[in-house]
Design brief:
Largest sheet: 12 strands, antiparallel
Strand order of the largest sheet: 5-6-7-8-4-3-2-10-11-12-14-13
Number of helices: 8
Number of strands: 14
Structural class: alpha+beta
Shape: globular
Radius of gyration: 19 Å
Oligomer: single chain
Distance between the termini: 32 Å
Strand content: 25-35%
Length: about 300
């Protein structure tokens, strides 16, 4: 699938550079699979995140990025402090940031979603799970100039001028570009959740209301990394950066670079902790509590830690 044309952040199809990745994530957050949930996630730390990763399949290389949002928890936090948690207001879904977004949002009403998954940076596609009125949404799409295209998964509604396609049911909305074909995408390869590195990252993140995964450049000693956003309450929040490396040596070297970065900016990274990844894969973990003057999500648009992590 080529993906919806909503992002100016490009990059090579294989893997992105750190700077391009940070810009892509920032655009996706607005920094200021067929139906139902996939099986195989199991239970335990990171189970919900792993279930989201099961929605992203690939043939040769993993997606450049994957974003998961627990929409129900995001709504709770937004209700307590909409400004503080504004980075999850659009549920990590690029179409909601379009300047030309119609009032009805193509049926993508954040109040109705329970979980969202976005796959890719430059040409994203994704799903919304929740409780939707499919008949009403389809009527709105037809009235808005969308046309029907039949696929194995069902009817995809396409607007070629806007470069968007949607497949709508009462439990799930698939969105992407005009080539959207959920059945073909699901059958295109193995889910990312089957990769040991991503399973370990999901377990490292644990219970988060948002997770952002990044596949690094091909020659990097860091296989992949992910940001997880935690909230004990609306005022007690933190970000955990988990990374899987090619070797224990690479993990130690990455940890040393991260310590130098954290020690160099003690006010910005106050109370940050750096420790080895406690999973089967080698790696490193950085936990950064949000300070009163730092909004949750600020690390997504802040490239210093990612640069220190991936620099060789």
């Amino acid at each position: 699938m080529s993906g919806l044309r909503v992002s100016a952040a490009g990059g090579p199809a294989r893997r992105t550079t750190t700077t391009t990745t940070a810009i892509a994530i920032a655009l996706a957050v607005g920094v200021s699979a067929l139906s139902g949930c996939s099986s195989g996630a199991g239970s335990g730390p990171g189970a919900e995140v792993l279930a989201a990763l099961a929605e992203a399949s690939y043939e040769e290389t993993p997606p450049t990025g994957i974003t998961y949002v627990d929409a129900e928890r995001a709504r709770e936090l937004l209700a307590e402090d909409a400004e503080r948690f504004s980075f999850v207001a659009e549920l990590g879904t690029p179409p909601l940031g379009l300047m030309t977004l119609p009032e009805h949002r193509y049926g993508l009403d954040p109040e109705l979603a329970s979980r969202t998954v976005t796959v890719g940076f430059a040409a994203p596609y994704g799903i919304w799970d929740g409780e939707f009125d499919a008949a009403a949404i389809v009527d709105e799409l037809a009235a808005d100039g969308f046309t029907e295209r039949e696929t194995e998964a069902g009817t995809v509604w396409v607007h070629h001028d806007r470069g968007i396609g949607l497949l709508v049911t009462d439990e799930r909305i698939h969105w992407g570009d005009e080539q959207l074909d959920p059945a073909r995408t699901a059958a295109s390869g193995e889910p990312v959740a089957e990769q040991d590195a991503y399973r370990d990252l999901a377990a490292c993140l644990g219970d988060v209301y948002r997770a952002d995964f990044v596949e690094t450049r091909e020659d990097s000693e860091v296989v992949a990394y992910a940001y997880g956003h935690r909230a004990e309450s609306a005022t007690e929040t933190s970000t955990v950066l988990c990374a899987v490396t090619e070797s224990d040596t690479a993990a130690d070297e990455a940890a040393e670079r991260l310590r130098e970065t954290v020690d160099g900016r003690p006010d910005q990274y106050r109370d940050a902790e750096i420790e080895p990844l406690d999973q089967d894969s080698p790696g490193v973990v950085v936990t950064v509590p949000d300070q009163p003057d730092q909004r949750p999500g600020w690390l997504l648009g802040h490239i210093r830690l990612a640069e220190a992590l991936t620099r060789s």
